[in-house]
Design goal:
The protein has 371 residues and is mostly helical. 66% of the residues lie in helices and 0% in strands. α7 runs parallel beside α9 and α20 packs antiparallel against α23. It contains 23 helices and no strands.
Length: 371
């Protein structure tokens, strides 16, 4: 270990003079040089990181120990670079007092290899939280509900609040309430995996959302119940009403809107602009009847530019050449997978319709470029 630490320092000091000229300020050049030469950060990232971290020859003793520690847990240069880009201050962490006990706890609980790397890199909040009062209780609670380390990592990736909050105070009461209201344990787990932050909602907000979704007739043991609950928890009453009014502007009744919401809750999670643009294309360009969209509300969730418009263009060409009938079921055309659509409606007719593939891919490509 001593030899490796020596080599880290030696490599850095040997290259410092050649790279310091890249830094715009002499006060940060030492830090930038170390981040570039010893941690593998690109210069731009190193300059940004140097705003949160200040190193000089007097306090350079700790960073090599941190790098050596990470390497001992099989963090490669890419892992280390990503980690330090996100939290440069980790280089000043105490190895024995901070890093070692936390890593020991994680490894002992099955977080090794890729799981450990993913957890640490995507959830750097762990370096700031106390092991006994925050990390251990959080992992214990999450593991008891989510069952696998993979699910715990997914949840933590999606919400840093899971380690910054006291889960016994903020999450456990909501979990108990959901179970009391008839939400099965696997559905509670699904809610936490899909949107971990919702389990930290204020109690009165959780109660309100629960009653609102139950009043729609959704059953707590249904996946759509969980998805609808998430949407309702994320939205204020004012925003909810605005979305309802947007839908009504397209001649939907409130009963039709709520019915569509029950089948596809994301319909009211989309922005007002997204709802308007999608409805405009379906009604004015594709000339779909309102009832078709009401019956298949998932249509509104599809990307118009990346999925629907390219397919529409292909179908119109095929219809104009009488290669397919114009009375095909629209839900089949829009819901079918990308691979199936390419096989059935593009590849099958490329010889009869020169440029069909270019038309399809060209439209999709332009949409990606515009996005």
């Amino acid at each position: 270990m001593a030899m490796k630490l020596f080599l880290i320092r030696k490599r850095f000091l040997a290259t410092q003079s050649t790279s310091s000229s890249l830094s715009p300020s002499s006060s940060s050049s030492f830090t930038v040089d170390f981040l570039v030469n010893s941690c593998g950060l690109p210069l731009k990232s190193a300059l940004l990181a140097s705003r949160k971290l200040k190193l000089d020859k007097k306090n350079l003793r700790n960073p090599p120990f941190v790098l050596q520690f990470l390497q001992s847990h099989n963090f490669d240069e890419t892992h280390i670079s990503k980690l330090i880009e996100k939290r440069p201050e980790v280089l000043q962490s105490r190895v024995e007092g901070n890093l070692t006990p936390k890593f020991d706890f994680l490894v002992a609980n099955g977080f090794v290899g890729k799981l450990l790397h993913d957890l640490i890199i995507h959830h750097t909040e762990i370096f700031k939280r106390a092991l006994d009062s925050r990390i251990k209780p959080a992992f214990s609670l999450l593991k008891s509900i989510l069952h696998s380390n993979e699910n715990v990592v997914v949840a933590l990736k999606r919400s840093s609040r899971l380690l910054s909050a006291d889960l016994n105070v903020n999450a456990q009461p909501n979990i108990d309430f959901l179970r009391k209201e008839g939400v099965p344990a696997d559905m509670v787990a699904k809610l936490i995996i899909l949107n971990p932050g919702t389990i930290l909602s204020k109690r009165d907000r959780m109660v309100y959302a629960m009653n609102a979704i139950k009043n729609l007739g959704l059953e707590p043991n249904n996946t759509m119940f969980v998805r609808a609950l998430i949407v309702r928890l994320q939205m204020t009453e004012t925003t909810w009403n605005k979305k309802i009014e947007v839908m009504k502007s397209f001649q939907w009744s409130e009963e039709e809107i709520l019915g569509a919401f029950k089948r596809y809750p994301q319909i009211l999670a989309m922005s007002e602009e997204k709802i308007r643009s999608a409805m405009d294309f379906y009604i004015n360009t594709m000339e779909l009847q309102r009832q078709i969209i009401i019956a298949c509300p998932i249509f509104l969730g599809y990307s118009i530019d990346k999925r629907i418009r390219p397919r529409y263009n292909v179908i119109k060409v095929l219809e104009s050449k009488e290669l397919i009938k114009g009375d095909m079921k629209i839900s089949t055309l829009l819901n079918t997978s990308e691979k199936t659509f390419l096989i059935n409606y593009v590849s099958r007719y490329v010889e009869e319709v020169p440029g069909l593939l270019d038309l399809y891919k060209g439209t999709a490509k332009r949409a990606e470029k515009d996005a």
